[in-house]
């Protein structure tokens, strides 16, 4: 039997299939990573040299002038702090509140679970529009405030479905045992359900964190006049807009030593891509082991 299996797996057809499969995966990896690698190369390449083109995987003339230009903007560092704060606070609050609602509508004894679920799903397809939403935010007194980043999107319907589906797959006997021991709904939720739902929570946390980190349009709508509430993405968008409206192919700026340096819209765009992407990319490895499991198990009953 072992000899037969060994012969089957070492046949010419299997080897050709493995070779084609590996080649396809390598090409797919290169295609996926190339845009980011190219942006990395352009961000560390001299702006004047970048105009010549032909920069693909590696900088031709190394420099950090592009990063000096971006970080010399006075509000970038504080905007980074605001982005980090809204990402951390927004993710924690959103995931916890979504998980509480998901737990409620996952319980079979809750009579209105179907009505509540349909009501939330309805909001995925229909909304009041931009102007009514702005007027609502204004009437709630959240204009020019930090909480406008947190409260309006506190419940994500897709995230709710993922967590609810995961909770519905938990053994019912665990909850019944907790109730027999005198645990209430809050105790059962915090001490039993949440630890068992970590894969789904990690998956949703990644979704929410990426959204919070990349969001800039809400800053433009609600907090554009408050520089102390500006986010990194909004500041980078303003830098990009300024560079794109430049009348020259390259802009000059003075560095800390007073020397005149050159930057171009292409170099700034590449630098901004790296600055905005690296922090959120660093979070992914810590959630990767939960991501696939959370998506597969949470989507079984969705």
Automatic annotation (TrEMBL):
The source's domain of life comes to Bacteria
Is Transferase among this UniProt entry's keywords? no
The record lists the membrane-crossing segments as 21-44, 76-103, 115-134, 146-167, 188-213, 268-287
| Primary location group | membrane
Q: Which SUPFAM superfamilies match?
A: MetI-like (SSF161098)
Q: Does the keyword Cell membrane apply?
A: yes
State the annotated membrane topology for this chain: Multi-pass membrane protein
A biological process term (GO) from this entry = transmembrane transport
InterPro entries in the cross-refs: MetI-like, MetI-like_sf
Q: Where is the ABC transmembrane type-1 domain?
A: 80-287
* Coiled-coil spans in chain: none
Q: Where in the cell is it found?
A: Cell membrane
The Gene Ontology CC terms held by the record are: plasma membrane
Instruction: Enumerate the UniProt keywords alphabetically.
Output: Cell membrane, Membrane, Transmembrane, Transmembrane helix, Transport
Similarity comment: family membership: Belongs to the binding-protein-dependent transport system permease family.
What is this protein's name?
Carbohydrate ABC transporter permease
Which organism does this sequence originate in?
Answer: Cohnella luojiensis
């Amino acid at each position: 039997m072992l000899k037969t299996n060994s012969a089957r797996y070492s046949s010419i057809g299997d080897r050709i299939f493995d070779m084609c499969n590996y080649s396809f995966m390598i090409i797919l990896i290169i295609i996926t990573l190339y845009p980011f690698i190219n942006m990395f190369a352009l961000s560390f390449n001299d702006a004047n040299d970048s105009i010549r083109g032909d920069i693909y995987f590696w900088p031709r003339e190394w420099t950090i002038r592009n990063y000096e230009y971006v970080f010399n903007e006075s509000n970038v560092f504080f905007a980074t702090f605001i982005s980090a704060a809204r990402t951390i606070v927004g993710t924690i609050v959103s995931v916890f509140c979504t998980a509480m609602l998901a737990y409620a509508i996952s319980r079979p004894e809750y009579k209105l679970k179907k009505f509540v679920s349909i009501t939330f799903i309805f909001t995925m397809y229909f909304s009041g529009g931009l102007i009514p939403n702005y007027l609502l935010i204004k009437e709630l007194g959240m204009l020019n405030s930090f909480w406008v980043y947190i409260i309006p999107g506190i419940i994500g319907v897709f995230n709710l479905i993922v967590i609810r589906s995961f909770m519905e797959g938990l053994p019912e006997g665990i909850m019944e045992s907790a109730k027999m021991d005198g645990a209430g709904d809050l105790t059962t939720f915090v001490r039993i359900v949440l630890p068992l739902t970590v894969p789904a929570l990690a998956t949703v946390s990644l979704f929410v964190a990426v959204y919070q980190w990349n969001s800039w349009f809400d800053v433009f709508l609600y907090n554009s006049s408050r520089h102390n509430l500006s986010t990194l993405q909004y500041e980078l968008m303003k830098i990009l807009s300024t560079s794109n409206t430049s009348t020259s192919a390259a802009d000059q700026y003075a560095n800390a030593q007073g020397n005149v340096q050159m930057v171009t819209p292409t170099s700034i765009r590449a630098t901004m891509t790296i600055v905005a992407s690296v922090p959120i990319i660093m979070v992914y490895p810590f959630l990767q082991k939960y991501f696939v499991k959370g998506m597969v198990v949470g989507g079984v009953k969705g």
